[in-house]
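Consider the following assembly input.
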Amino acid sequence: MAIKTQPVTVNLGPQHPSTHGVFRLRVMFDGEEIVDVEPIFGYLHRGSEKLAEERTYTQIITLTDRMDYVSSMLNNQAYMLAVEKLAGIEPTPRGVWLRMIASELQRIASHLVATGFLLQDLGALGTPLIYAMRERENILDLFEMLCGARITTSYLRPGGVFMDAPKEFWPALDRELVDIVNTLDELEKYLSGNEIVFSRTKGTAVLPPEMLINASITGPMLRASGVDWDLRHRNPYDYYDRIQFKRILHTASDNYARYWVRIQEARESVVIIRQCVEQIEPGEVRPSFDEVPHLIRPPKGDAYVAIESSKGELGFYLVSDGGIAPYRMHVRAPSLINLTLLREMLIGGLFGDLFVSFGSIDLNMGEVDR
Amino acid sequence: MIGLGLTRGFLVTLRNFVRSPVTIQYPDRHVGLFGAAKEAGMNPFRFLVGRPGDSIKAIAGLATVPVKLEQSPRFRGNEFVFFEDRCTACASCAKYCPLGIIEIVSVPGKIDALEGESYKLEVFDIDIGRCMFCGLCVEACPYDALHMGTGFEQSTYVRDELILTLDVLNAAEKKPSSFYRPQFEENAFDPFAETIENHYDAGRHERPSDEDMKKRWVDERWTNDD
Ligand code: SF4
Ligand code: SF4
């Protein structure tokens, strides 16, 4: 005899440890099953795009740090590429290599956070999260050496970076790359063969690739469904065309595939950094102030540049009216767009999988609301 | 096989269980008798005899010593180091700040035969309660008068105390960070051990000699103007 149940509406968030920020979900359950989901966001809206309209192009870099605060270097990079395209600035080679190293380190850090929190949501209380965060701390130490800050980096400037890496950075980077691989090995040993992880993540929240493409979802979520779409390879920006790296693909498109793609991508980032370190040459890290002054006034026009951020395609659209501040700035935030399939992911699933599926999107509320 | 993955996972946990921790105790670290004696600069036996009260505390696990954090010299801390003698009141820093939280009021100051005319600062306030320590003001300062500091323990009970006035800035310890100051990095200046006493040492150029200054500002000046 089937037990008769009554649908119950539960409000999760906005203050909930598993929502990765201030995010609210109104979920209707029928027994264990999710029948309806309504995401409500905007609690972290700080109006970055509007604030940018009255700040100079260099000052905006501080706003981009705070959008996706677990991958600020990548935000810096996307924004600076847009400014360079808008103003026609030719970056210096050493500056480009340095920012590629920084952004790949940031990608590893971001994937470690995503993996750690995903496992936390799975019920592995603390332990794997702490393993991942421990390694991320070391990466943040490297950022502290580079730019003096750990999260709000503001490292990039139009045409390069503001300062060359200090001498002690390079040996520390070498040590760190070895450590990262060890940590990833450890995480994989711990989890990739783990029956609990398997049974909880395999086959849950499966999304067909067509649906992902139609919803213009990008990043590890898309690659976990077997679609080969990585802007570093498809539309190389900076010097990614001089770098050989494997594209990580999985075909299952379930929660496990997303987790697996992130771990393997972090490994590939180590390979990319090693190639960057080999190819980097001494030189200036930013154009002289005669070429690119503190206050740049790009000509009238607009520019859109997208990069492969840790979450997906992160794009900056800038419109200039010839003044010292952009007329309009718009951000294509991958976290927000990856959220569009939340209903399809969750409805029909079980209560226990709710936060696992949610965590596998790798959201950052700072980026969703901006 | 069922259980194999779990066993492997637990082996990783076990290895980490015996690993020394990466976290540190902050701001104070608990020490035993040996640690307390080392902190006092005595050998443990002497410490036990000479300071029995402290020894009992240490044995009971109540003694603490302050912990120094590992920071990079480029660290952008929650404070500023300011050399008034270097500042020309050009207000580049105030213009460059994304938040506009630096207030500068200046008046024409003395006219020095050697150094030319100068402006005197009347007000130089940084409201660090609103500051995000981005360092753009430091980057903008053309005369190396303003530097980021390396300290970060700046909490107060009153919001108004977070406004750094000229007096506060002048009285503060001069431990500038090497953020955007390559000259400190070249000299291997360590902000956690040394301070900069003389404002001449903070600049990116050698100080010109008095003769050079006189040549530049007194002799050549009048000939150039003709
Ligand atoms: S650190 Fe940044 S926010 Fe603070 S005073 Fe300087 S420019 Fe302004
Ligand atoms: S601190 Fe530097 S930028 Fe600010 S007024 Fe003084 S000299 Fe100018």
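The beta strands of chain A are 8-12, 24-30, 33-40, 156-157, 160-161, 301-308, 313-320, 328-332. Ask yourself how this observation constrains the way the partners meet.
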